[in-house]
Backbone:
């Protein structure tokens, strides 16, 4: 330990002596009894018992969980002291303790594999088909048709990022092809096709009077809600009491099966992190209104091995799709393709 009574350099020198003692073949118990400042563990031969990840912090975990049984670490600096770690036993949960978690993991992997297979079939069949009904029938999917819509306007799934851009792309709008498979989120994919298209034109007022009135009224309501939300946020930032019925959502992640709208989740993850004890506020425009969001805290996610493997797999699939799409584009530019 270093601090008021001993400098860091002096403490490091003592710790190195202890490490040399271990390297010379002395037992960990004898070395701990001679050099350790932790009298409680020294009396027990330096034994800390069974330690789980996170108990002593990241530095401890990085050193201890990289060792095998019987291996000794180099000096580990943490909490104003130098430590030497030796693993004497690895203890893990029994199969019975892990049975439910393993079963869930296998089931999830099977679902992911089946989903990815279906997505690949959707990619292949929607590219080859000259309609969507046959694709939907083959894959057991639901085929929906929208009403007329213009660029930049769309509700529900049509308001998702990239959907309208794909609908009005040259291949879909002008060539009449099925769109590429659009990834809405981890669990949803979409393919669209233009059923009918007409050029923009100015319609007689009598034909669109009701629609215009509804659109103006909706815009006025939305603007009024945005103004009200801005006023509420100003009061909240000033620390004033505001009567609102908050809908509390905890541990929301980008991939969670949340009941919150995706547009709301995306905006939340763009918000700055709040200081401890404070909240960050933002108004988020939704298709049916405006939400006032109070972000109280942010927990940094931990990417586990399964997630890293999934990300790597998806990256490989995306690279493969990009290569295939590049080849398709070259073929389209050099030859006439019948679909």
Residues:
């Amino acid at each position: 330990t270093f601090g008021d009574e001993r400098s860091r350099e002096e403490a490091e020198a003592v710790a190195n002596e202890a490490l040399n003692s271990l390297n010379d073949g002395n037992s960990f118990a004898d070395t701990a009894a001679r050099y350790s400042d932790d009298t409680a563990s020294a009396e027990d031969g330096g034994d800390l018992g069974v330690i789980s990840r996170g108990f002593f912090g990241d530095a401890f975990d990085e050193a201890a969980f990289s060792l095998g049984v019987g291996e000794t670490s180099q000096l580990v600096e943490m909490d104003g002291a130098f430590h030497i770690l030796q693993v004497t036993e690895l203890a893990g949960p029994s199969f019975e303790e892990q049975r439910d978690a393993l079963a869930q993991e296998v089931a999830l992997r099977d679902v992911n594999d089946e989903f990815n297979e279906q997505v690949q079939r959707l990619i292949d069949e929607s590219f080859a088909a000259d309609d969507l009904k046959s694709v939907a029938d083959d894959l057991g999917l639901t085929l929906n048709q929208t009403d007329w819509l213009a660029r930049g306007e769309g509700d529900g799934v049509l308001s998702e990022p990239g959907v309208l851009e794909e609908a009005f792309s040259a291949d879909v709008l002008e060539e009449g092809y099925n769109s590429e498979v659009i990834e809405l989120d981890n669990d949803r994919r979409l393919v669209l096709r233009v059923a009918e298209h007409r050029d923009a034109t100015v319609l007689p007022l009598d034909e669109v009077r009701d629609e215009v009135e509804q659109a103006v009224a909706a815009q006025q309501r939305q603007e009024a809600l945005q103004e009200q939300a801005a006023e509420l946020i100003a009061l909240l930032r000033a620390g004033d009491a505001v009567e609102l019925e908050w809908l509390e959502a905890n541990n929301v992640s980008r991939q969670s099966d949340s009941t919150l709208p995706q547009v709301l989740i995306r905006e939340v993850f763009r918000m700055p992190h709040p200081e401890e004890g404070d909240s960050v506020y933002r108004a988020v425009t939704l298709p049916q209104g405006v939400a006032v969001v109070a972000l109280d805290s942010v927990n940094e996610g931990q990417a586990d091995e399964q997630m890293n493997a999934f990300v790597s797999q998806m990256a490989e699939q995306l690279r493969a799709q990009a290569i295939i799409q590049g080849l398709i584009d070259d073929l389209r530019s050099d030859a006439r393709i019948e679909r």
Remarks:
- The longest helix spans residues 95-128.
- The mean pLDDT is 81.
- The chain has four domains: 8-83, 100-200, 208-295, 304-339.
